[in-house]
Structures are given as structure tokens and as C-alpha cells.
Amino acid sequence: MSSPTPPRADSRLPRWTPEDLARAKRDLVERPDHVRDVVVVGAGITGAGVARDAAMRGLDTLLIDASDLAYGTSSRSSRLIHGGVRYLEQGEIGLVFEALRERTRLYTLAPHLVRRATFVFPSFAEDRLQPWKLSLGLSLYDLLGLYQSPRHRRLSPRRARELEPLLRGDGLRGAVAYEDAITDDARLTLATIQSARASGADVLTYEPVDSLARADGIHVVTLRDGTLIKSRAVVLATGPWTGSRLLGSAGDELLTLSKGVHLVVPASSVPVAAPVVIQVPGQRRILFAIPWGARTYLGTTDSAYEGDPGAAGVTEGDEEEVLALVRRVLPGATQTSQVLSAWSGVRPLVAGKRRGNTVELARTHRIVENDDGVLAIVGGKLTTYRAMAEDVVDRVVSVLARRGMETVTPARRCTTHQHPLIPTDEAPHPDADSEVGRALARRHGATAQVMLRAIDDAPALAEKLVDDLPYRWVEVQHAVDYEGVRHLDDLLRRRIPLALTDAQLGGGVMRRVATMLADARGGSQRDIDEEVERYCALTETETRRRPRP
Ligand SMILES: Cc1cc2nc3c(=O)[nH]c(=O)nc-3n(C[C@H](O)[C@H](O)[C@H](O)COP(=O)(O)OP(=O)(O)OC[C@H]3O[C@@H](n4cnc5c(N)ncnc54)[C@H](O)[C@@H]3O)c2cc1C
Question: Helix or strand or coil: residue 179?
């Protein structure tokens, strides 16, 4: 049992190369009798938060994912850190309060990853929610947010169109403007895991957990290749994959899955000045048109889903549905042929009594414990991940105490709300205020200083990957050195979202990036070819489009 030590969060970002990933597995195999305090299965945002919290409380923590970190729902969301305006209508006051509190915390913990934005929510004659009702709801939203953000404003039709000229004029009754935040879901997950590593957690990727057992009070986690890991506690954070296979009967019918699709178009096709909220006629749901630099993304849908959550693709019907809903409010908006890319995610919703309509299911989380004492955390939101983690790690600590393995001491209390996700004490580089420095800081916060130093040694790294997007070669090099990358899609889909934003879906650079990765891993020409083929196949499954060299 590890002793209750204060978090040893590093002041510098630890390196995390392909070799470090391989070494973590070798260490595990070489120490079969090592007993962890907690093994967390699933490195989406939920598992990332749990691993960070556990490690910061001084618990000996191992985080394992069957694929890359954020491979599942956590890289396929609407990318909002929000209270969830629409949950007010469902009476989810507690969820909205918690989400708004977490939004405020994340502004401080991860400022470059959680950016404030003013959302414009219009109302047309045919819409269910008229301006007075929107304004009433947003007054409650302001109150639940404890007035930590600017209060919402009610806008006349004229003022609404001044703010967002693309809005349809005909039938526009008015709008409200309010604050929420936009994030990069995959990078928020990555930053949380980097913080967990800096606090002592070990991380394994591409290692599916096949089974769980318990003997003499100790859990035995078996990986697909037969490797055994011992632990005092196990937390499943497997999102939409959670079910009876690892949880037994406690996992039966625990979740209802719902698919949501987003489309990416050139900003010139839907040049919204601010995020626009769009009501769906006849339904209690909304979708968004969100500016994303040289692109705009549109979504999402909400339909019941069955099958492998990793294979939920985008259909032609999904694309037509989203575009039709957007065009009603933003006429003249895009044609299907202008869709550059798309993504599709599966929500792991806690099953309710009202089967069939996933729109009405609550987004709250639940902790389940099976007869063997395995804990699972399901449901919830990207926004509330830190609070969800606190909840489950409190439970881990009390489970360990119940089994006489742990005493709750002040050092075991949650401190995740007190520490920034990314170390902030990197010395400023003289070029911090240059165009490149500012562009990198926008995406990487204080870590941009590390990248600027890499550019000093190799100036060509400052060049862009593709002309019309902000991503630079230094970010590729940095991902290989610090971001736990194993495969090409880790890099071009989740560390840098080229598969979602580039007109060629990363096809123009994929071979060069695969070569950099092979150099770091000690791979051959054959590895490069395999990585490129794997990337093209995965991108086609997800986006319905194949990268073009
Ligand atoms: C379309 C859509 C839009 C959304 N928009 C928002 C939003 O704007 N804001 C917001 O707050 N929330 C949003 N959400 C919700 C949010 O994205 C999810 O609640 C959250 O990402 C779930 O994270 P997770 O870690 O629980 O699951 P996941 O991210 O799916 O992670 C589960 C992980 O478990 C791993 N795994 C599975 N089985 C095994 C195994 N046997 N062994 C090892 N690893 C395994 C998987 O590989 C995966 O990486 C949205 C969800 C969807 C689908």
C-alpha cells in the first residue's frame, strides 16, 4: 500500500514517447506481484479524471485503454463545456448547477482548453421556445451559475441579426445571447492524463482488458495477451462499452446508447460569427453551428444506437438531416457536397424507464458496484468529469477502508479543483508574442514555450502542416515526444484534428507523419505503409471519406 503522500505534480511536462509506452508494459510484465491501489479501465475523459484524482491522492494508479486515449466518445462530442440549457426543460436543475460550477472551475484549471464564447439562441415564429421562454430559462441558468459569467441578454430581431447576420429574417421573433464554453475534447482528455502521469499514474494504451476476477480480496485484471495485473480496487470507466462482460449482471441493461453526428464544413459555407443554437421543430432538442477557425462544425443528432460504439459511422441520411435543420435557420448555408469531414459519437446514457426516446434521458452519472466490489462509473458529461471522478475516488477510498486496506486521511481528500491541468511555470520564450508563439499558446497554453524552444533547434518545425489550418510540424514532433502517441490516427485524429478539418483529411502529410512516428518507434517501411493504410481505413469508417494523398 502506498503511503498517503501529497500530490507530486511535476512542474514540467513529463516526456511520453512511444518508447515510454512500451516500457510501461514491460515494467508491468516484469513485476507480476506488484499490487496497485487502483486500476482504472478506460482512458476517455471519465477514466482520465479518475486516474488524475486517484494519483493526486497518492494512490498507486494504473490507467488502461483498449485503444488510444480519448478514442471513444471523448473525442466525438459537441466539444462544449456547458451547463446544458436544454436540461433545464427536463428539470435537471442539479445537473445544470453542477455543470456550471465545473465550467467555472475549468476556466481556471485549463484556460487555453476551455474558451468562453457568446452563444446566440434565436427563436422563430414556428419554434416551440419563444423569446420570453428562452429568457426565463436563461435567467435560471444565470442564477444556477451563481452569476459568475455575464448575464444573458434578450435581443430584438434587428439586434439578433446585427450580431449574427446569417440568421433568417423571415419569422424571426428575437434571440437571447448567453455565455458557455468551447473545448477540444480529445486534448482535454490528454491534458488530464498528462496531469495524472505527472502525479505518478502509469498509463497503458492499446491493451484491452479481457476479464476481471477476485481472489483473496485482491482483484486480478487480465489483459487480452494474458498479462495479469493485481489491484486493491478496480474502476470501470468504459463509457458506452460498459456492460455485463466485465461487470457481470450489474452491467445488464445499465446503459442506453444514443448516436450523435457532427459535420465539418469550410467556414465560408456557414460563416457564423458566433456559435448559433438551433431549435429542432417538434422536438425537445437543439443543435449547434459552431465556428472553428477556417471551419464551422454543425451538430448534433440524437438517435438510439446498438452495436460497437467504435464503429458508429455517419450516414448520408445523418448528413441530410443536419444540413436541413441548419438551413432552416441559416438559409443559404452549405450544400452536402461542401461537407469536408464528419464524426459520430455514442452517448453512454444511464438507462431510464422511458425506453426508445434518448433525447429525454438524463445526462447524470451513476456509480455501480458489483458483487466482487468492482466499481463502474457511467453516464455524465465531458463538463462534469472532474466532479464525477471525485465522487468515484471517494468511493474507492471508502471501499479500501471498508476492507481494512486504507485509512481516510486528509491527504486522501480530493484536490483536483486546486491544480491546473497543464504546468504553468514554463519560462516565457522570447518569441512568445510572435504570430507562431500566439498560435501555439492558443492550443497548448504554457506548453507552447517548450515548442518554441524546439523551433529554435529546428526552424522548419514552425511551418504549417497545411496552408489553411493553424497546425504546425512542431506539434507533430511534440506529440511524438510528449503525448503518448502509438499510431498515426492517434496523431492526426486526436492530438491534431486534421482528419476532421483538412480538405484532404490529412492525406497530404500522412506519409511524412507516419515516417516521423516510425523513426521514433524504430519502425520499417512496412510499418509506415501499414500505418497509412490503417489511418485511411479508420478515417473512412468514421467520416465516410477517405484521405487523399
Ligand atoms: C454526440 C455527442 C455530443 C456530446 N457533446 C457533449 C458536450 O458538448 N459537452 C459535454 O459535456 N458532454 C458531451 N457529450 C457527452 C460526453 O462526450 C461523454 O459523456 C463523455 O465523453 C464520456 O466519456 P467516457 O470516458 O465515459 O467514455 P469514452 O470516452 O467512450 O471512453 C471509454 C474508453 O473505454 C475504453 N474501453 C472500452 N472497453 C475497454 C476494455 N475492455 N479495456 C480497456 N479499455 C476499454 C474505450 O477504448 C474508450 O477509450 C456528448 C456525447 C456525444 C455522443
Answer: strand
Residues 261 and 346 occupy one common structural domain:
yes
Q: Cell match 440549457: residue?
A: 85
Distance CA(321)–CA(9), nearest Å, equals 46
Pocket lining: 383 vs ligand 1, CB cutoff 6 Å: yes
Same domain assignment for residues 375 and 286: no
Please state, in angstroms and rounded to a whole number, the distance separating the CA atoms of residues 516 and 488. Answer: 10
Closest CA to 210 of 41, 359, 60: 41
Q: How far apart are CA 241 and CA 254, in angstroms?
A: 11
Reported as a single tens digit per residue, the pLDDT across 254-268 is 898 999 999 999 999
Residue 488 sits in which domain range? 463-543
**One-letter amino acid for residue 408 of the chain:** V
According to DSSP H, which parts of 312-372 are helical?
316-329
Ligand 1 pocket mutation, candidates 221, 238, 246, 366, criterion most atoms within 8 A of CB: 238
Angle made by CA atoms 182, 165, 134, in degrees to the nearest 5: 60
pLDDT tens digits along 305-322 = 999 999 999 999 999 999
Residue with cell 499490487: 35
Q: Are residues 269 and 404 in the same domain?
A: no
309, part of any domain: yes
Do 247 and 379 lie in one domain? The reply is: yes
> What's the mean pLDDT in 210-219?
95
Per cent of the chain over pLDDT 90 is 83
Q: Report pLDDT digits (tens) over 360-397.
A: 555 688 999 999 999 999 999 999 999 999 999 999 99
How far away, in angstroms, is 73 Cα from ligand 1 center?
3
Whether the CB of 72 sits within 6 Å of ligand 1: yes
* Ligand 1 binding pocket includes 203 (Cβ within 6 Å): no
Q: What total number of domains does the chain contain?
A: 3
pLDDT for 361 equals 56
In this prediction, residue 401 has a pLDDT band, given cuts at 50, 70 and 90, of confident
Residue 501 has pLDDT above 90, yes or no: yes
- Residue 66's pLDDT is 98
170/284 same-domain check: yes
Q: Are residues 266 and 169 in the same domain?
A: yes
Q: Are residue 260 and residue 241 in the same domain, yes or no?
A: no
Look at residue 143 and tell me if it is in a domain: yes
Whether the CB of 46 sits within 6 Å of ligand 1: yes
Ligand 1 pocket test: pick from 52, 53, 62, 73 the residue with the most ligand atoms within 8 Å of its Cβ. 73
The answer to whether position 170 is within a domain reads yes
Is 49 contained in some domain?
yes
